[in-house]
Amino acid sequence: MLRQDTKLNPKLFSPNVEQIPIRKGFGEGLLATGEADERVVGLCADLTESTQMHLFAKKFPNRFVEIGVAEQNLVTVASGMAAMGKIPFVSSYAMFSPGRNWEQIRTTIAYNNRPVKIAGSHAGVSVGPDGGTHQAIEDIALMRVLPRMVVLSPCDAIEAKKATLAATKIDHPTYIRLAREKTPVMTTADTPFEIGKAAVFFAPEKGKADVGMTVTGALTHKALQAARWLSEEGLRVKVLNFATIKPLDEKALVELAREAGAIVTVEEHQIAGGFGSAVAECLAARMPVPIEFIGVRDLFGQSGTPDELLEHYGMGVGHIKDAVRRVMKRKT
Amino acid sequence: MALHEDKIKELEIKANLIRQTIIEALVEAGSGHTAGPLDMADIFTYLYFYGLKHNPKKPDWPERDRLVLSNGHICPVLYATMAHAGYFSVDEYKKTLRKFGTKFQGHPHRDFLPALETSSGPLGSGLSQAVGMALADRIDYGKSGDRFFYALLSDGEHDCGNTWEAVLLAGKEKLGHLIAIVDRNNIQIDGFTEDIMPLEPFAKKYEAFNWHVQEIDGHSFSAIDEAVNRAKAVFDQPSVIIARTIPGKGVKEFERDYHWHGKPPSKEEGAMALAELRTLGGKIKSEHQ
Questions:
Q1: Chains A & B: contacts with CB separation below 8 Å
Q2: Is the bond preceding B201 in cis, omega lying within 30 degrees of 0?
Q3: In total, how many domains does chain A have?
Q4: Where a domain ends, among A155, A184, A213?
Q5: How many Cα atoms within 13 Å fall on the side-chain side of residue A89?
Q6: Residue B154 · residue A139 · CB < 8 Å
Q7: What is the pLDDT of residues A253-266, one digit of tens each?
Q8: Residue B289 predicted with pLDDT over 70
């Protein structure tokens, strides 16, 4: 059942659950953090409205820089502004930033230790009809491999707003992964959020969990749906939402693995190098248990509706349930 | 006001010492770049001993001008000049360049040497960082700011798209406090720039992007001084000073040969180079240390 103490949206499983694009939460968060802290500046690469930076740009035209279609310049200019004490937020599509400008992010932001906040919107195959060129399913790997980089992957618009506000308050370079499509609102203003902390969204009514799910981003909703089905079938499932991929909440993860003895990881990203890999790296060393991975298996995306694509690439509710059954069989 | 003759002499002597330090450090390191550091010694000397607003005793003084070295591989001249200016020990630099645990990494890294404005090495991203600094300054002070932002670039890194992205943006934003100085030494690793990827008409390219452009002799202190002063006086455009330099300047055997881009002198070559620098190319008999 949904964990009460996490204060999730009670209408989460309703067919009429409110749906808001995750990127919208970023836009509202940036406006709010810009109002609270005048060091915040915004830079965008010709995608101001699409990445929802237009709210900030309209309110603070003097603190907004339109860079044009130049993602390498986007992040290096931001690094220079950070060197002067600004807290720059840069936004583009994840495919272009960090897709196109990775080395500039590495050298001028991470290596240089500048607290630039990189918002990568339109991540995942659920970008839909635009096709594979625009579907970033490699960005978690690109960002979590960088020393100093904090990687945030909010599950809905409310969490995205909190992540944006929290990112301003840390000195680290930070990546915030956003999705384009409308996503069911799972959390509420009262749901706890802290960088580096995972949150239990779903847990058995009583007793120890038989299986643990570790999820990140918009697929959290599908994971919760799968968890509800499985618990109706009598399985005890616990779901942890990781809004922070790096630093990984290893304590919560190891506790879950110890309790459940089997893990399914869920993300809208390549399995190679992504969130599931981070989970596996931790558990292989600290609490080895069978793990099944939901994600894209070494393929590129294509055009389609978000649901068609999630089904095609093995990230639907049915796939998550199948992965749980598979991992249960591997439990010793 | 033109640079006084005495000041020019003083700067020339300093630049000679800095070239000696570069040679000594490279010989000891056994790897590194020779041509660029030698040809930029005059410009670095001018900036750190005359043109730049800075304080070696307070490297983080907020009101200082910012100097962003984009082509990090010429850091031997940055380190040598900063050492002579009093930021750190000349001796430590000469002994530890490129060695394990050193402050003086093969390419500049702020983690090891916090007095640096940026870490750099991969080409093409220094100008945009200086653009970002100038933009931040304008947010805080408008056009009345009195800090200048110097970006030191190589000609070869104008092959990089990122450089031109920054050139476009600086022109659009009319960043009057931005001064780019390009080391126009005509060489890069694989050969002469005009064979590898022609840049000419170089000045016209910058003009077309709405920059204020000057071309000067990069080894003339009076020319450097005049150009920097003129650049500072331009308020509605970013400025570029294309400094024509001789790669390997100061050591005849190294000059104009692109093979010296990325290798250090051997011990013997180093001794020869030092003798040449100390006797001012044979003009005086006894070597000055």
A1: 96
A2: yes
A3: 2
A4: A184
A5: 38
A6: no
A7: 999 999 999 999 99
A8: no
- Tell me if A79 and B132 make a contact (CB, 8 A cut-off): yes
pLDDT band for A2, please (50, 70, 90 cuts): confident
Question: Does residue A281 carry a catalytic annotation?
Answer: no
Chain A closest CA to B270's CA: distance in Å?
32
Q: Are strands A87-93 and A40-44 parallel, antiparallel or unpaired?
A: parallel
Nearest in space to A68 (alpha carbons), one of B130, B119, B128, B15: B128
Whether B119 and A111 lie within 8 Å, measured CB to CB:
yes
Is the pLDDT reported for residue B162 higher than 70?
yes
The CA distance from B233 to B71, in Å, is 26
Cβ of B122 within 8 Å of Cβ of A78? The answer is no
Q: Check whether residue A126 and residue A157 sit in a common domain.
A: yes
| B137-153: average pLDDT | 94
A111 touches chain B (CB under 8 A): yes
Q: How confident is the model at residue B288 (pLDDT cuts 50, 70, 90)?
A: low
Q: How far apart are CA A208 and CA A110, in angstroms?
A: 41
Chain A positions touching B128 (Cβ under 8 A) are 72-73, 76-77, 79-80
Domain extent for A324: 4-16+192-330
List pLDDT tens digits, range B182-217: 999 999 999 999 999 999 999 999 999 999 999 999
Domain boundary among A157, A184, A211: A184
- Which residue of B127, B169, B209 is the best one to mutate when testing the A interface, meaning the one whose CB has the most A CBs within 10 A? B169
Q: Which residue has the tokens 């043109």?
A: B51
Catalytic entry in A71, A138, A268, A292: A71
Task: State the best of B125, B133, B169, B177 to mutate against chain A, taking most chain A CBs within 10 Å.
Answer: B125
What predicted TM-score, i.e. pTM, was given to this entire model?
0.96
CB contact under 8 A, B66 and A83: yes
Contact A86 B119 (CB under 8 A): no
Q: Is the ipTM of this complex over 0.85?
A: yes
Residues A101 and A145 in one domain: yes
Q: What is the CATH number of the domain that holds A272?
A: 3.40.50.920
Question: How confident is the model over A156-192, as pLDDT tens digits?
Answer: 999 999 999 999 999 999 999 999 889 999 999 999 9
| Domains and their CATH numbers in chain B | 5-278 (3.40.50.970)
**CATH code (residue A174):** 3.40.50.970
Nearest Cα to B45, choosing from B71, B73, B7?
A: B7
Angle between helices A220-232 and A317-330 (to 10 degrees): 60
What is the per-residue pLDDT for A332? 76
A216 shares its domain with A250: yes
A35: contact with B, CB 8 A cutoff: no
